[in-house]
């Protein structure tokens, strides 16, 4: 059985295994592909390490191994602004839920907080003890969790950039950190294959979930926070109950190491892997329901916003997908972003 993914300028034909229940979800279409350009001081376009859509949905921030953060228009790929304040790879970035703040961090040990108004201006600069691999805002945007090559994760005040507390982790090579949707829990994982969960308010260690036999690269909470999804180097995708740690489902991802996980709908997750594919899974059963071809390098970054999913990674391209179906509307913003939304 063949499935045709129709893009803006090209058609990509991919083979879909008969076991994939593609009829259970709307056809995912490739809207357009954006090829990044090399900077003036480089011969090659940057590898994309992270991508995030602003809550208004019009612009995105793109992190790269060229030390830059690019602010781009989602619909056209037009470059709006380049942020050049990092001194090394930018590994992680995220907009706050209200869209007022952009946080960026990476191999230079720096956490930079940017004000997002009519322009994007640097507000504060803080330091992390080591390389930063990942960061995440809590539900109301007041706190920011950082994880990297350190024995602890750090929780910062998202307004001032000041350190609030450090939480002792399992190991010192952490690749992913996530707040639960209600902000009550924070989870981190990395080289040891253990998901450690803390009470975000008190810092109390809640539990360890011994999830994988190798490094975990990505975590995602379900919409209600009751489940957590993990994937990584052992080519396994798993779901667990957040409160008890009970494993609900597990599936092999074949030859693909899982580098990125994103919640697509309340009942579906997407993964990006070393097989250059984006795959869709039923959250409850982890049965594959779709897969999207087109990248020719590891898909290291995934993000969703409304009916749009964006994938990127080692091939220096950004692919914008139309998910179709019904999705929750984006939040109403309280900040002026006219420069980015007109």
TrEMBL record:
InterPro entries linked: WD40/YVTN_repeat-like_dom_sf, WD40_PAC1, WD40_repeat_CS, WD40_repeat_dom_sf, WD40_rpt, WD_LIS1/nudF_dynein_reg
Gene3D superfamilies xref list: YVTN repeat-like/Quinoprotein amine dehydrogenase
UniProt superkingdom: Bacteria
Signal peptide coordinates: 1-23
Keyword tags: Repeat, Signal, WD repeat
Pfam families: WD40
Positions of WD repeats: 83-124, 167-208, 209-250, 269-291, 292-323
Keyword Repeat: yes
PANTHER family: WD REPEAT-CONTAINING PROTEIN POP1 (PTHR44129)
Official protein name in the record: WD40 repeat domain-containing protein
């Amino acid at each position: 059985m063949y499935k045709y993914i129709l893009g803006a300028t090209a058609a990509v034909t991919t083979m879909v295994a008969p076991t994939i229940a593609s009829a259970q979800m709307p056809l995912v279409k490739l809207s357009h592909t954006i090829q990044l350009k090399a900077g003036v001081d480089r011969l090659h376009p940057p590898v994309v390490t992270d991508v995030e859509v602003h809550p208004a949905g019009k612009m995105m921030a793109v992190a790269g191994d060229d030390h830059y953060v690019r602010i781009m228009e989602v619909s056209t790929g037009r470059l709006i602004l380049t942020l050049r304040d990092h001194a090394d790879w930018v590994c992680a970035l995220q907009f706050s839920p209200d869209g007022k703040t952009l946080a960026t961090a990476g191999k230079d040990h720096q956490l930079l907080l940017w004000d997002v108004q009519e322009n994007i201006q640097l507000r504060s600069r803080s330091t992390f003890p080591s390389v930063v691999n990942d960061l995440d805002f809590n539900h109301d945007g007041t706190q920011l969790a950082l994880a990297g090559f350190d024995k602890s994760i750090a929780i910062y005040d998202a307004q001032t950039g000041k350190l609030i507390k450090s939480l002792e982790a399992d190991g010192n090579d952490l690749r992913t950190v996530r707040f639960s949707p209600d902000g009550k829990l924070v989870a981190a994982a990395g080289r040891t294959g253990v998901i450690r969960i803390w009470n975000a308010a008190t810092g109390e260690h809640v539990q360890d979930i011994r999830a994988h036999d190798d490094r975990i690269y990505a975590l995602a909470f379900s919409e209600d926070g009751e489940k957590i999804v993990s994937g990584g180097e052992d080519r396994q995708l798993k779901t667990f109950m957040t409160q008890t740690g009970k494993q609900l489902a597990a599936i092999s991802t074949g030859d693909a190491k899982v580098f990125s996980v994103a919640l697509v709908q309340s009942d579906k997750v997407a993964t990006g892997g070393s097989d250059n594919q984006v795959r869709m899974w039923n959250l409850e059963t982890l049965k594959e329901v779709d897969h999207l071809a087109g990248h020719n390098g590891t898909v290291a970054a995934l993000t969703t916003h409304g009916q749009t999913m964006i994938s990127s990674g080692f091939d220096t391209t950004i692919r914008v997908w139309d998910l179709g179906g019904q999705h929750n509307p984006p939040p109403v913003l309280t900040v002026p972003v006219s420069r980015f939304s007109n």
